[in-house]
Design brief:
Radius of gyration: 20 Å
Largest sheet: none
Distance between the termini: 30 Å
Order of helices and strands: HHH
Mean pLDDT: 87
Number of domains: 1
Number of strands: 0
Low-confidence stretches: none
Helix content: over 70%
Number of helices: 3
Shape: rod-shaped
Length: 72
């Protein structure tokens, strides 16, 4: 990995620290988008507007245990 970073750092003329910061930021933004999309999908599937509402409906038994499979 170090050699890879050295090549990119040299070719793009971007300091390693800045390169790592940008890569980390991009990775986290992508993960956050994926989590938001998954949250919307689950909310839509079970007709809830928040995690708290989903949890409450699970505790009441309104939503079956099968729902927890999509939370893994």
């Amino acid at each position: 990995m170090s050699n890879f970073l050295q090549i990119i750092e040299k070719e793009l003329a971007i300091p390693r620290k800045q390169l790592l910061e940008k890569a980390t930021k991009k990775f986290l933004e992508t993960e956050l988008r994926n989590i938001c999309a998954e949250t919307k999908k689950i909310s839509s599937r079970y007709g809830v507007n928040s995690f708290d509402e989903l949890w409450e409906r699970l505790e009441k038994g309104d939503i079956t245990q099968a729902c927890t499979d999509c939370l893994k």
